């Protein structure tokens, strides 16, 4: 299959991509177990199928991601890219990017999460991501979904290993465990993720030489400090020239090398991690 971004796939391509993703799950989990053994960890103890195992497992993956850093190649020149899991080849990774070993750890972790979450929310099913049920960053992605919620499992782990490899603050094991629990609740139709499923956290519109970013209205009203924190971290990202707040929930972002989807995905993942629950 050509490396078409998920967002640009037609219905048949997205359905095929879901099948490929699911076909990769067993090998990805085997790869995680092999990596753990190679670094002196006991996978039978760490992967005990309890939701609590997420915390120490993610702490270990975080540590490895920090040690491995970034790949010296660009995405287009990376000779190992053809060996990546399909979601990484069709997703929106950016340079500088994590090396293959880190991506494979995220892939195995996503497989493990799929097993845990499916057991805890048996009503969930694997589907092609839809725009109507959540937000555009998940359009055509392989998601675990119910009538109330959908989740692309590699998304937040990938965001976090980028943070770790750049020497920034990654998600802790405790944060990742909370993230998993929130998504289990949302798949059951409970919690803020399920309640706000029709209303995106972020909207992005491309203007002539900038982006107009709108935040969900409750965010500045209920969490004003979060918006200032988001602006500060966004200003620190490579290529971001400026961020101007012209209203409580409205930003103008000058970042020449990003597109709408990259900016929306970054802001969405950042808010998913940092909004108080």
Q: How would you characterize the overall build of this protein?
A:
This protein has 277 residues and is α+β, with helices and mostly antiparallel strands. It contains twelve helices and seven strands. It has helices at 11-23, 25-38, 43-46, 54-68, 86-90, 100-120, 155-165, 173-187, 191-195, 218-222, 224-235, 260-274, and strands at 125-128, 142-145, 150-151, 202-206, 211-215, 240-247, 250-255. It has a four-stranded antiparallel sheet with strand order 4-5-7-6. Helix 2 crosses helix 6 (100-120), helix 4 runs antiparallel to helix 6 (100-120) and helix 4 packs across helix 8. It is globular and about 55 Å long. The protein starts with 10 loop residues before the first helix and ends with a helix. The mean pLDDT is 91.
Topology:
Layout: H1 11-23, H2 25-38, H3 43-46, H4 54-68, H5 86-90, H6 100-120, E1 125-128, E2 142-145, E3 150-151, H7 155-165, H8 173-187, H9 191-195, E4 202-206, E5 211-215, H10 218-222, H11 224-235, E6 240-247, E7 250-255, H12 260-274
Helix pairs in contact: 2-6, 4-6, 4-7, 4-8
């Amino acid at each position: 299959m050509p490396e078409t971004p998920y967002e640009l796939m037609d219905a048949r391509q997205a359905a095929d991509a879901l099948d490929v993703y699911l076909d990769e799950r067993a090998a990805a989990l085997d790869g995680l177990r092999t990596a753990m053994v190679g670094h002196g960890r006991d996978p039978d103890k760490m992967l005990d199928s309890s939701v609590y195992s997420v915390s120490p497992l993610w702490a270990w993956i975080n540590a490895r991601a920090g040690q491995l850093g970034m790949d010296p190649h660009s995405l287009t020149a990376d000779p190992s890219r053809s060996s990546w899991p399909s979601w990484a080849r069709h997703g929106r990774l950016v340079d500088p990017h994590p090396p293959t070993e880190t991506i494979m750890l995220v892939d195995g972790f996503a497989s493990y999460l799929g097993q845990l979450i499916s057991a805890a929310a048996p009503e969930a099913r694997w589907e092609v991501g839809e725009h109507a049920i959540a937000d555009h960053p998940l359009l055509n992605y392989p998601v675990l979904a119910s009538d109330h919620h959908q989740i692309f499992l590699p998304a937040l782990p990938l965001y976090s290993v980028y943070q770790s490899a750049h020497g920034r603050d990654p998600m802790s094991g405790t944060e990742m465990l909370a993230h998993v629990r929130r998504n289990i609740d949302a798949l059951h139709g409970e919690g803020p993720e399920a309640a706000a499923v029709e209303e995106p956290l972020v909207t992005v519109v491309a203007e002539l030489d900038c982006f107009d970013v709108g935040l969900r209205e409750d965010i500045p009203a209920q969490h004003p400090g979060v918006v200032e924190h988001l602006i500060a971290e966004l200003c620190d990202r490579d290529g971001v020239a400026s961020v101007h707040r012209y209203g409580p929930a409205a930003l103008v972002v000058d970042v020449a090398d990003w597109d709408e989807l990259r900016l929306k995905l970054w802001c969405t993942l950042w808010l998913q991690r940092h909004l108080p629950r």
